[in-house]
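Re: export button greyed out
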Amino acid sequence: DVKVTQSSRYLVKRTGEKVFLECVQDMDHENMFWYRQDPGLGLRLIYFSYDVKMKEKGDIPEGYSVSREKKERFSLILESASTNQTSMYLCASSSSRVRETQYFGPGTRLLVL
Amino acid sequence: AQKITQTQPGMFVQEKEAVTLDCTYDTSDQSYGLFWYKQPSSGEMIFLIYQGSYDEQNATEGRYSLNFQKARKSANLVISASQLGDSAMYFCAMRDREDSSYKLIFGSGTRLLVRP
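Workaround output, generated via the alternate export path:
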């Protein structure tokens, strides 16, 4: 079974803190993605990566950065957390086969106070 | 630009009945894929079904089927014989198969509640 794990299910941080969200997949997938999910807005892509050390901006990259030093690990970084970054964060991975779905982690619910 | 529209924020269905969740999409591409995901209250996104734009038949996976109408740009999910465990958020998503990034674009979702 494909497994995508995220480092935390719930996080509470204070405004201005640096926040790291970690994602690990065990299927040797080339592609990894970070989304945020807000009520009524669906999932919006923050960043994605199609190879080690490669990253591309998604639709809402402002306030975020990412790191992919190893193929299996994709980190999302909030350099200085703000209250409007309170959200559910979902990591996903996929192979590069055309019909391949994305496999998602369990999500991290982040609250920024 | 590509866009997915789910016009039903919430729906009710009686247990054991069938239900259709609507999804329309907008793209100028000829080659694309359409996905449906289920998200229970636990939060994890679960892949349900896939339809390629060139697939001649509608996709089916157990109790899930996809009513694909290419000319109308709709890809509705049909759940037959609803079960209580089907209560969840459902998301329709699209990928441009000519886009090497393999990004997905999601709709805003439909919350389905199955009544006993």
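The mean pLDDT of chain A is 93. The button fix ships in the next patch.
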